[in-house]
Amino acid sequence: MNETMKIIFGLVGGLAIFIYGMNMMSECLQKAAGEKMKKILALLTKNPILGVLAGALTTAVLQSSSATTVMTIGFVSAGLMSLPQAISIILGANIGTTMTAQIIAFKITDYIYLFIFAGFLISFISKKEKVKNIGQTIFAFGLLFLGIETMGDVMKPLASSAFFVNMIGKVSHIPILGVCVGAVMTLVVQSSSATIAVLQNFAAQAGPDGVTSIIGLTGAIPILLGDNIGTTITAVLASIGQPKDARRTAFAHCVFNISGAILFLFLVKPYAALIQFISPKGNEIDVISRQIANAHTGFNLVMTLIWIPLIPLMVKIVMKLVPDGKEMGAKALENPNYLDNKLIAQPAAALQLVAKEVMYCAKIVDEMIGKLQSGNGKIDKENAGIVEEKAKILQKLYASINDYFAALYSGGVLTEEQASQSAGMQSILCDIDRIGQLTREIMETVAKQNKGKHKYSKEALKELKKAMEQIQMIYGSCIRAISGNVDMDIKELMRQKEDIMQLDEKMRKNHIARVGKGKCDSKLTIPFNDVLHNIDRIGNSCVNLVEVAKENVTMQAFFAED
């Protein structure tokens, strides 16, 4: 194998190890962080400063600004976050992503295999999930640096190549060319952290004089700016087919990085001098990796400080780029309002959206029950049609949510605690769906008899209305309980269920009495008993919801703490 092929294979192989290690570390950090991720997400407030902090912390944990940006777009798409709030998160994400470059700048070459062995040992021996995740994080950290070391070793022969040195010299002296090189590299690799790692390693190679860097800090900064532009493509791709505010969030990411690249392109030499002044001193090839990391951090800090007070201007810019108008790809009623498949890899965020979707289903069922007991005891055609339509929507949402759960489980991204809580949420969803379908059956039974020869008496319809009013009351209380309302009295809910059972028995006796007096047709006994049976089953499902709430499996568990 000739030297060129060795370099190419070594470079792509080292890059593959680096990206694999970084992705593995990101996944394991998410699992190890557990509840801390919720506290980070709790900072997603309307305060821009806290939004920036949240974006930076989330990205530091996820080890990827692209992941944070995709998550933010998902929240905006679901209507859980406003555009100005999302922009502040994006600003913070750009700061958080510089953490990887800062870590890379530490020279831990001699300890790479120690990290790999220690991480493997911890994850192999430990039986506790959190400790295993910590071990795998350490293992992935070692792989990340092994990839960097591999790339560094294969790059050394390039420094002695006259052709390559000449080509790099052109890039160093033509900043716009460096920006293009950086942007293209990141577009191909789809990770600015990876391309900056390559840049740090390459810059650490000595030039022909054996002392100075082959590219120097002034040559590296334009490539660094291009890396920041290239990483915006992930956000743009994630926003395709999303609502306009989600697309605006992606464009805000582009505006931030492109405006920064244009500004700093005119300040490359003075900025390089500033970074050299504040960075550790020493031989250029020994300190340039840290200088590049500091330049990356400094760029994002400066641009964030510039844009924080100008967020309203940023909003106006992106609204011009993505104007109001006919919404393309708007979701149909039966499609999920909150679920986003792009967030499967971020379970803390994904489960938050699932909880929102389940509560949306609960709202649909509440509306169905309301239609059944409205109209002063009369079941009209319009209400029957509405209940039927909502029941169909509910079934489709139920299937979509279960498919989403299946994707989360099969993806292996859930911790044991998250998986346990998810099972509780699935139980809640099943009872909500069951109550919805039973409500539809009651409506169908009553509406069918009212169309026929044998009709229910006014007394029977009024009793039915009263029963559904009680059902709606206890159902509403149950939903508030599983929403995390700590003021709900579980014992009171159980008492309400007993009231429904007593009412059910009373309605059966009253029906028999009316049949005996000739007020109700005896042929209605079977369908009327079917209605009462379904009411009883709804009551049982409400009890199930109460039991789940008693076990503290509430939707509040999936939301960030206030």
Automatic annotation (TrEMBL):
The chain crosses the membrane at residues 6-22, 43-62, 68-92, 104-125, 137-155, 176-199, 211-238, 250-278, 298-319. The keyword Cell cycle does not apply. InterPro entries: Na/Pi_transpt (IPR003841), NaPi_cotrn-rel/YqeW-like (IPR004633), PhoU-like_sf (IPR038078). One of its GO terms (cellular component) is plasma membrane. Pfam families: Na_Pi_cotrans (PF02690). One of its GO terms (biological process) is sodium-dependent phosphate transport. The keyword Cell membrane applies. It is a multi-pass membrane protein. Its main location: membrane. Keywords: Cell membrane, Membrane, Transmembrane, Transmembrane helix. One of its GO terms (molecular function) is sodium:phosphate symporter activity. It is found in: Cell membrane. This is Na/Pi cotransporter family protein. The lineage of its organism: Bacteria, Bacillati, Bacillota, Clostridia, Lachnospirales.
